[in-house]
């Protein structure tokens, strides 16, 4: 049903012990048992995130390309690019306060994107250790991170409607690790969910500066509005701007899925002149973040009722950006459905 289009980014999940057999690699993001700094010594970007409680539950997200890859490092940001897509990564070490270092690291990354000519920022992932803990000033670490990120985007003249799709999720160590996918020429459409307040418009009660991200982005290599890819941000049990069903992981999972179904579905697509009619069964390379390990079987059961049996799905036991959220999901619609 699906086919890969080489002008668009390609990614798949690969077991950690099968990484030797890869070719044509732009980047390998290891969801593994320890964090590291970005590494370009393999001739592609390699980045370790502390997202697994042991290597047995880890996996690698591998980005491939059929073009030659160049790598480099600038201001602590490691990168790999192939002339059309850039993957870059950075890390803010564990600290008592994060806003300033986050602003600096994000600014370095946005400057790098500009200097290399990859300004269409499609997707960002942010992994925040102790995300719900207070920093040294009593501000929640996630809110502290959001403050620095917002300042960096503003300093680089990113308007709210040009911020990427993103994930901001807990991690098990390493401070704040982040990586980004940006494009040189492909058309990028940021997408919002009409059932949710845009994150960048959240009221101040969620923190001094709102989280700057789009609910999804649509990336297309041609004029054909049916042929693009859809990057779905981390999505949770939020309607309007409020958390619903705190303490009920099953209801939270169902509402998060409903949010994604609406975001990828026909009604939203029509609003953005996207000629696709996706359902949850079109989502792939899905990550499901579950706060309490004991909830994973129930969440998995609900997910399996909605996703394609062919979809790659990874379950990670980490904290979520609001203390009252137990679950969050993200994924990519890699290629369009053939039927109208
Ligand atoms: C779950 C939400 O936000 C989370 C935090 C994000 C961030 O700060 O980059 C992005 C998506 C989600 O991972 C939400 O606000 O709906």
From TrEMBL:
Residues 61-182 form the Chorismatase FkbO/Hyg5-like N-terminal domain. SUPFAM superfamilies: YjgF-like. Transmembrane segments: none annotated. It comes from the Bacteria. InterPro entries: Chori_FkbO_Hyg5, FkbO_Hyg5-like_N, RutC-like_sf. This is FkbO/Hyg5 family chorismatase. It comes from Saccharopolyspora ipomoeae.
């Amino acid at each position: 049903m699906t086919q890969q289009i080489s002008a668009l980014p390609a990614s798949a999940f690969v077991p950690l012990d099968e990484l030797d057999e890869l070719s044509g690699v732009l980047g390998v993001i290891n969801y593994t048992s320890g964090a590291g700094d970005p590494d370009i010594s393999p001739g592609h970007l390699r980045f370790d995130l502390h997202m697994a409680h042991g290597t047995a539950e880890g996996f690698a997200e591998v980005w491939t390309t059929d073009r030659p890859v160049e790598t480099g490092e600038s201001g602590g940001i490691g990168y790999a690019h192939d002339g059309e897509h850039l993957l870059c990564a950075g890390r803010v070490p564990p600290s008592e306060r994060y806003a300033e270092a986050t602003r600096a690291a994000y600014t370095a990354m946005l400057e790098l994107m500009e200097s290399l000519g990859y300004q269409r920022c499609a997707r960002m992932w942010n992994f925040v250790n102790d995300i719900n803990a207070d920093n040294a000033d009593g501000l929640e670490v996630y809110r502290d991170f959001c403050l620095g990120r917002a300042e960096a985007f503003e300093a680089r003249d990113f308007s709210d409607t040009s911020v990427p799709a993103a994930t901001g999720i807990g991690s098990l160590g390493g401070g704040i690790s982040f990586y980004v996918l940006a494009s040189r020429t492909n058309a990028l459409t940021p997408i919002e969910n009409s059932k949710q307040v845009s994150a960048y418009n959240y009221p101040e009660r969620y923190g001094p500066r709102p989280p700057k991200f789009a609910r999804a982005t649509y990336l297309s290599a041609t004029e054909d509005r049916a042929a693009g890819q859809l990057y779905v941000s981390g999505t949770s049990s939020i309607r309007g701007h409020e958390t619903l069903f705190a303490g009920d992981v099953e209801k939270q999972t169902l509402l998060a899925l409903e949010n994604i179904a609406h975001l990828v579905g026909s009604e939203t697509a029509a609003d953005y002149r996207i000629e696709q009619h996706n359902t949850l069964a079109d989502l792939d390379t899905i990550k499901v973040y579950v706060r309490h390990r004991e909830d994973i079987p129930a969440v998995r059961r609900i997910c399996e009722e909605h996703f394609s049996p062919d979809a790659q799905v990874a379950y990670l036991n980490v904290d979520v950006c609001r203390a009252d959220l137990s679950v969050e999901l993200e994924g990519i619609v890699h290629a369009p459905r053939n039927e109208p």
